[in-house]
Amino acid sequence: MEEGVRPDEVQWLLDELCTRKGFCLPTEKRQQLLEQAPFTSVDAFTDAVLTAEGMDPSLHKKLRGGVRHVVQRHLATVRHEPQDWPIDM
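The structure corresponding to this sequence follows.
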């Protein structure tokens, strides 16, 4: 069962998305996401990030998938959860 994104994880995830995907939101957008937390799911957080970037998540499915993957992977690593995607070799 997927757990949502907790408030204490939002800042860290935003930093990861900036580094890994170039989603470097301005301070006011980051603050808005922090105020919206907790997010009910990884999908809800992913969509909120894309929306904050001025994108419609339904129109950017490939990009959305990449952002979601980064969020899910980093949450699983931090929470020591099993991974449900192939491991790169």
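DSSP finds four helices and no strands in the chain.
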